[in-house]
Amino acid sequence: QVQVVESGGGSVQSGGTLRLSCVASGYTYSRYCMAWFRQVPGKGREGVAAYDSDGGTYYADSVKGRFTIYQDKAKNTLYLNMNNLKPEDTAMYYCAAEKGGSWCYYDPPTAFGYWGQGTQVTVSS
């Protein structure tokens, strides 16, 4: 059974930095795709960034140049470094995982079958 657990959310001021962590366990895929999504109340889940274990990272335009997705394979942990945070980045952030392939991208969220419980990020102006 695949389990996904996020951590690292919090509250920062505009321009600040946070790093989210995600550990996915219980899968044996040789190739996998992991991604970060975010959601605010009343809106759908928005893709932020995706990581293909075979190489390749993908970013939504709204975070390109500010966020970095990467994996520390030794720690089996996926990270999302978030720099120059803006109030509009405020959301619940979710990590998702799925068996990988050439499809790997941060959209649509329905492509991912395994999700964490979410971690809140709040950016104040």
> What gyration radius follows from the Cα positions, in whole Å?
14 Å
Distance between the termini: 41 Å
Give the class from helix and strand content and strand pairing. mainly beta
- Strand and helix order: EEEEEEEEEEE
Number of strands: 11
The rough form would be described as globular
Strand content: over 45%
Count of separate DSSP helical elements: 0
Estimate percent helicity: under 10%
Return residue spans where pLDDT drops below 50 for at least 5 consecutive residues. none
Largest sheet data: 7 strands, mixed
Helix-strand blueprint:
Blueprint: E1 3-7, E2 10-13, E3 18-25, E4 32-39, E5 46-52, E6 57-59, E7 67-72, E8 77-82, E9 91-99, E10 114-115, E11 119-124
Parallel strand pairs: 2-11
Antiparallel strand pairs: 1-3, 3-8, 4-5, 4-9, 5-6, 7-8, 9-10, 9-11
